[in-house]
Structures are given as structure tokens and as C-alpha cells.
Amino acid sequence: MGLQTLQSKEGVAVVPVAGTAPTADALLRVLRSTLGHGGDVALSWQRDGDEATGTGGNGADSQARVMAARLLANQPGNEGPRRIGSAWTTSDGTRVALAAVLGEPLPQAERHEWLDMARGLIDTWLVAEHALVRVHSLQKSERLQQALYEIADLSGSDMDVSEMLERIHHVVGGLMYAENLYIVLYDEVRATIRFLYFADSRDPYVADPGREIHERELPNSMTFALLKKGEAQFGPSAEIRHRLGVSRDIAHGPDSEDWLGVPIRRDDHVCGALVVQSYERANVYGEEERALLSYVAQHILTALDRRRARDELERRVEERTYALQLTNRDLQAEIVERQRAERLQRALFRIAELSITSGSLERFYAQIHDVVGELLYARNFYIAILRDDDNTLGFPYSVDEREPVRPTRKLGSGLTEWVIRAGKALLADSQRLLQLENSGEVSPRGAMPHCWLGVPLFHEGAVVGVIAVQSYSVAISFTRRDQELLTFVAHHISNGLARKRAQDRLVAAHADLEQRVQARTQELAQANAELLEQIGERLRAEQRLTYQARHDALTGLPNRSQLLERLGLAISRARQQPAATPSFAVLFLDLDRFKLVNDSAGHSAGDHLLVEAGRRIVAAVREDDTVARLGGDEFAILVENLDEKHDSQIVVETLAQRILSLLSQPCWVAGREVFPSASIGIAFWNPRYRNGADLLRDADAAMYRAKAAGRDRWAIFDQAMRDQAVRILDLEADLRRAINNDDFVAFYQPIICLESNAVVGHEALLRWKHERRGLLLPGEFIGMGEDCGLIEQVDWLMYRRVLRHLAAEPGDSYVSINVSPRHFRATDFGDRLLRLADEAGADPSRLRIEITEVALLDDIARAIRMLHNLREHGVLAQIDDFGTGYSALSYLHRFPIECLKIDRSFVAGLDAGGGQESVAVIRAIQALAGTLGIYTIGEGIETGEQSRILAELGCTRGQGYLYGRPVETPMYEVAAA
User: Fold this and answer.
1) What is the reported pLDDT for 12?
2) Of 151, 148, 177, which is closest to residue 276 (Cα–Cα)?
């Protein structure tokens, strides 16, 4: 068979054309008959792009066929007396080769005549054969075009999808064998298919177009393999499965003798497949059928897209129509609502106008009835007003078809009283009224209405009456909207009623004005006399305010302001009369543990203690001394007129001791016997002081020295204390500069395995490289840093330096950092530390934190959450100085702790005379650690004997000068102990 190319607007397809072999054989038989007995003729030809075709000859290996093939390939034909051969190209580009083998030789002239005759016949036959091929091609093109027209018409029809696809199946069946056909749609992202159409003579499967089938449900499907391959496949099922690497699965139906599947593409993406198959005949489908089916498949996709677009358009039209209907309905409702609002607005304007223009309240009520009647059914309408005694209910206006008169009555249990008591509207039909009556909430008076609506009237937030409408007909009922409307109107009626009453009161007020003017004139004379008395009272009040501004409100003692004023005068006198001995002194007194009294017995008890303390201090000092309360539990005593003939310091010290003795006597506070005590700081006058605040400052500093020495004592501010304060101030300034310059370094002390002496980690220790004093240990500045709040900044600088070291130094060993309770109490400490490690690029699993036992017990739940969060990110926790602090063993097992660090005081005792006690404590710690499943580290190991005993007691790790002192660069090897 030959091949012919068909051009169309939709693309290019290759279709089969009718074979020409029978016609060529007939031609060769005629030519053979002209050669005489024993002759043989063969013919070969080839069009552009086609394979060579040959016929004739006595068998495929005959001399004539071999010779024709060689001539067609431009090879010598081995012509001789018994051979005739020729090769040429026709006008349409067909290459032709003719070969004849003679039974007997022919003369040369006859040979030429025969060859010319044969060439003419062959050329004529080729022209006719080519025309026949074109006719067949046009017929096939016409059938294909007609099929595509039918598919396009089906896609635009009103029939449903299943019927449309069935008709398309029929159209495809007119082009090729397609008794068994199915169409699938493919979702590449979801890896699912849907059988849009399925027709099979042997497979009973019924397709559900709406069901998605995942690839997992069809593990050995040739359809899925075809879709994923993205290329057409044809041939027997077994051959295609082998080609696609799919296993045989009887669940996918019987095998077919011939199977053809082509992918359906949209924008270079596979979106489905069209498959036909034959169960009885083989070799039904070839390249020509593949091309045809691919061409048809794309038109089927176009038809499906058109159908889907049309359905989507119809859906959108329906949605838009429905939306327009809703909009129209809302618009109509809005129009109705606006009409109601306009009526309501007109009614409110009328109510406002009536409150001014109505001649009397009775006329005002009647006109209000007319206004309400325009808004809702108000044939039965009344207004009830509470009288001034709040126990009587009057009806200034009532219109009712069954109760023409409503007399004034005491408050009872009627519907009107229910609204007054509840302070809210009541809408009740006959069933609701019956429920209220049966429950005993109301006892209806008069005729029972079918529907009743009442709303309260308010004035200045209080219920002053009720406006009500009712219906006796089952045909008329009130709604929630009527209730909202009447409530809104009632609010304006209340305002109008208030204005009307105000007008009436104004008229009465004018009548009474003259009488009041006269009475007021008489009162004015009396007021003048009272005014003089008030001026005197004001002067006395100013004196009281002046006293209060200079004295403590609780104890009546002079306050800080008055004390500083007296100190200023004392300093002025001292500067005018310089003397060798101090001329006055200041005592700063603070009650010890006063907060405990406040927290345990309450602030009233604390106030009582302060008053008693002030009384005792006043009783202890001299008559010309000044006792002031500075605030809280702080008092100050200004001791003046010190006699130069006596030792001023002894006089002041004696006074301080006398105050302490008198204060320490027991007293009863809130039913408890209390033994108060105090700490006193003393500062003597010195010319260097510029003002009283400086004296109070130094006396305060001396008082804190007394508290630090054990409370219930006094201390004198001296030059050493002043120098220390200056040093602390200078050190604080240096510390602030050091923080800005990052002058802190980490020194590392190795932690070793006691068994192998291998370094397993290091403890990072803080050092300050002071610009003048050199390297400072933590003990020289941590206390001051904690007092001024700077130590936290220093710690974070060190943490950042340690984490950068970890990031730059590879290895498995860890570094532990010390975390104070102040840090551990911060809720964001764990997150901030992990964030710092992430910024430095350090491995969190190489970081340990050392915390004390007291830090764990401040907030146990929060501590557990923080430690678990750090542990999840690799940061483990160790308890430092274990055994020296307060341990809550009942809680310790709940904390995610890696190890316990045995305090150096126990390790040092292993060499001392009390070694047995240290051994017992360490053994107990080891037992506790074993129970908790954690290990221990011995701190402060300085001798080999200490290391040996710790190892025998079960301690696995150690640290101390025996293995290495803290250095700026970590050591990873230590000498054998």
C-alpha cells in the first residue's frame, strides 16, 4: 500500500490509499506476453518520501526483480543479450525502474521498440494510478471533514454530554473500527482520571463521569501509563504493556488483539485520552489510524471545551439572573423601608411640633393618638402615667371600644404594671397572655384582648409610664416591627412629654418669679453677713492646708519638705559660724522588715505601727530636735545645737541607741505582739555638703550599711564609706563604657571524663578586661552590676561571644554558661538564647546552661516549659552548686535536667578531716542522680585524691585546677592527673 498526505485547516494527517498492485500486475502480464515464451518482467517505483515498491518477476528473488531494484538504486543492471533494463523519473517526480529477462534473444531494434512501448505504458499507468490515489484521498478527506462537522454540530447541540459522546462514538466508527471506545479526562496535578465515556462489547464496566479515580486505585493501568508517557500507542495489549512497563491485571478487563490510544492535549499538557480496541482482529490499527484518531481526539476536546464553556456561560447567566432577582427584591424592600422611614420621620416631626403648639396635655395626648394611628393599628390606645408617689397609676388618655373609662388605680399585677416593672416592651398574643396569667406574672384587668403591645416611657433613665395599643380581633395582630416602631415613637413621645411639662412648669415659674425676687432680696442681706463668716473660714482652711502641706497626714510629723527647709536653715547657720566640731547631724531611720507586717496583717496594721514608731521616736529625742517622716517606713531626725563642750558624736550615738531601745519594746498590732526594730544611718555636718539632700543621701547610705551589718543597729557615714561610694560610682561608669566597648571576655575551664581524662566540655567564665585595672574577676563587679541592673547586658554580651566561639570551633565538646535567677525569671530568656544561637550559626546541642536550685522554684510550671523548649532544640540544663541551696526533691524529678554539679565545698572536704561527712553527702547526691537517670560533675578538684574518691563514689566527670585553670582559649587535652 502507498501513503498519501492530506492537508486540512486542522492540521496534517496521513491516511491510507488504495493499493495499486493488481493494476500493476495486469500491466506486467501484458508486457510479459509481448516478450515471447520464457520471458519475465519486473517493475519498481518510488515517490518522494515513500518507500520503494516493486512487483512482477517469478518470485521475490527472481532475476528481473533483483535487476529492477538495482536500477532503481542507480546500480549497474548487468544488461546482456537476454536482459533489458531502464530507469527514469516521471514528470511528477516518481523514480521508475523496468527490468525484463528474455526467454530468447531479440534484435536490437525490437529491444528499443519494446522498451519505448513499455515506458509509455508505464508512464500512462502511473498517471492514472496517481489520479486514483488522489480521488481516494479526496474521498477520505471528505469523510473526515464531514465527521468533524458532525462533531462540531454535536458540541453545540442541546443534548446532554453522555448522548453527545455516544453520537461522537458513532461518527468515529464511520472512520475506523471503533466498536470498543472510551474517553478519559486526566488531572495531572491530582493524578486522577474520570471516564467521560465508556463503550465496550466485553468489559461490563459502567462509567461514572463524576467519579475521580486516583492512580493508586489503578496501579497497572495502560491508560495511566499512556497519559504519563504522553505519546500514542498501538498494537496488541501484551506488547503495549511490555513497552510501557505495566504488569498484567485481570481487573482491567480482557486483553485485546489490537489497541490504539492517543493522548488529548491542551496547551502542551496531557488532559485526557481517546482509546479504541479490537478483541477479535489483529493489525486493525496502524500509523494511519493513529494519525486519524489523534486528529479526531483534538476535535473531541474542542467539542468538550465548547460544551463546558456553554454550560459555564449558562451557569453564570443563571447566577447573574438570580443575583439580579435578589438585588431587585432588596431594592423593593429598601423602597418599602424608606417609605416607612418617611412616614416615621413625618410622625416624629409632628410629635416635636405638638409638644410646643398643643394648648394642653389633654390635647397633646389626643394628637399623639392620631400620629400613632397613622403608623399602626391604634383603635384601642391608652397612655398610663406613674403618679408622684410611684405607687399609683393614672390614665390621662384612653380610647377603647370595650373599656371607655380607665380609672386611676394602685399598682397591681396588670399588663401595664408588668412593663413598668420590667422596664421593657411586651408583645403578647392570646397564647402568651394565657401563659403569663397561668404563671402568676400578671392578672389581666377588664376585657381580654387578642393581642396586646405596650412599651415603656422613660424620663432621665427611669420608667414614668406606658403607651399601649391592643386588638380584640383575631384578624389584627401586632408584630416585632410594630414593637420596634412604637418603641422608637415612645422615645420621642417621652421627650415631647418632658418638653410639654417643662413649658407648663415655666409658666408657673414666671408667676412665681416676682415673689421669689422679693424673697431673694431679703436673703441677699443675710448672705452678705454669711459671706464675712465664710471669709474667716477660708483663712482657717488655708492655714489647715499649709499645715497639711508641711506635715505627714498619718503621723502628724513634719514631712520631707519641712525637713529639707530646716536643713537648709541649719546649713546656713553652720556656714556663718564655722566650728571645729559638727554643729548638727542627721539620723536616717528605716524600720526593719516593715513589709512583713503590711503583707501579713494588712496596711491598717502597718499604719498603726508607723504611728506608734513615730510616737516612740519623738519620745526618745530632745525637745529641740526635729523628727520627720519621709515616706513609707522611713524617718529622719535633725539633731541641732550640739554642745561644743561635749563630744558631739557620743551625743548622737547615745541618741541613736536610745531610739533603737525604745523602738524595740513590744507592741500589739492587729491582735499580735510585734517586736519592731530599725536601722539608723548617721551623717554629721561637713562644709562639703551643699544642701540638705546631700546630707540625707549620705545618712541613707549609712543606714543601708547598718542593715547589711545585721539590722537593729546604727552606722556613721565616714570617709571610707564615701570613698567606697565614689569607687562604686566610678566602677558603674566604667561598666557602662565597657558594655559599649564590649570589653568582656570568656575564659574556659575544661570539664573532663574522670575515667579517661578526655575533655568533654568547658565552662565559660566571665572576665572584664578593665582599661586601667587589668583583668577583673566576677566577684569584683557582679554585685555592683546587679544593683544598677547592668549585669544582664554583660551576660548577653558573654553569651554572644561564647556562641560565636562555638560556631567557629568545630568539634563535639560542649560549653556551659552560667544563668542567674534574674535571667531565668524572664519569660523570653529561652527564645532569646535560641535566637542568639541561630544568628551566630552555632549548634544548640553543644550549649549547656548552669542554673541554681533556687531559680527552678520561683515559678515551677514556667521553668519546666522553658527547660523543655530548650531541650527540644538541643540545649541541656545543669544544676550548679548542688547541695548548697534549697532543694525541693518532690519537684526535682519533674525538671528535664542533664546533670548535677557537686559543689566545691563538698569536694574540698574529701581531703579535710571531715572527709566522712563529705563522702556521705556526695554518696547521697550520687544516689539521687542515679534515681533521676542523670550524671554528676565534681567542681573544684585540686588533688588526685579528690579525683580518685569522686570516681569511686560514681561521679563520672570533674573540673578544677587539677585539670586546668580558666584560660581564654579552650584546652582540649589535659595532663594525666
Assistant:
1) 29
2) 177
Vertex 73: Cα angle to 68 and 75 (nearest 5) = 80
Is residue 121 within 8 Å of residue 30, measured between CB atoms? yes
d(CA 140, CA 415): 94
Q: What is the DSSP letter of 756?
A: T
Residue 750: pLDDT band with limits 50, 70, 90: very high
Task: Give the separation between CA 549 and CA 792, rounded to whole angstroms.
Answer: 41
Select the highest-mean-pLDDT range: 271-275, 280-284, 732-736, 779-783. 271-275
The 3-state secondary structure of 142-187, one letter per residue: HHHHHHHHHHHHHHCCCCCHHHHHHHHHHHHHCCCCCCEEEEEEEE
> Cα(551)–Cα(563) distance, rounded to whole angstroms?
10
On the CB side of 2, CA atoms within 13 Å amount to 25
Give the per-residue pLDDT at 966: 92
Confidence of residue 31 (pLDDT cuts 50, 70, 90): confident
d(CA 739, CA 766): 13
Query: Whole-number mean pLDDT of the chain?
Result: 82
Cell (9 digits) for 799: 553569651
pLDDT of residue 580 exceeding 90, the answer is no
Report d(CA 449, CA 855) in Å as an integer: 76
Averaged pLDDT, 692-704: 88
Burial 207-244 (b: 16+ CB within 10 A, else e): beeeeebeeeebeebbbbbbbebeebbbbbbeebbeeb
Whether 222 contacts 246, CB under 8 Å: yes
CA distance 295 to 474: 76
DSSP codes of every residue in 186-226: EETTTTEEEEEEEE-SS------TT--EEGGG-TT-HHHHH
* Identity at 335, one-letter amino acid code: I
Within 10 A of 183 (CB to CB), how many other CB atoms are there? 24
Strand bridging mode 192-199 / 95-101: unpaired
Calpha distance 344→849 (Å, rounded): 75
pLDDT at 358 over 70: no
Distance CA 909, CA 939 (A): 12
Among candidate residues 855, 826, 846, 813, the one with its CA nearest the CA of residue 959: 813
In the chain, the amino acid numbered 403 is: E
Distance CA 789, CA 933 (A): 38
CA 606 to chain centre: 49
Beta bridge partners of 761: 751, 814
Q: What is the mean pLDDT of residues 659-685?
A: 86
Q: At 787, is the secondary structure helix, strand, or coil? A: helix
Q: Strands 213-214 and 233-235: what pairing? A: unpaired
Query: pLDDT grade, residue 58 (50/70/90)?
Result: low
**The pairing of beta strand 814-818 with beta strand 847-851:** parallel
Q: For the chain, what is the largest distance between any 2 Cα atoms, rounded to a whole number of angstroms?
A: 177
User: What pLDDT does residue 22 have?
Assistant: 46
DSSP 583-618: S-EEEEEEETTHHHHHHHH-HHHHHHHHHHHHHHHH
CA 398 to CA 42: how far, in whole Å? Answer: 129
The per-residue pLDDT for 871 is: 92
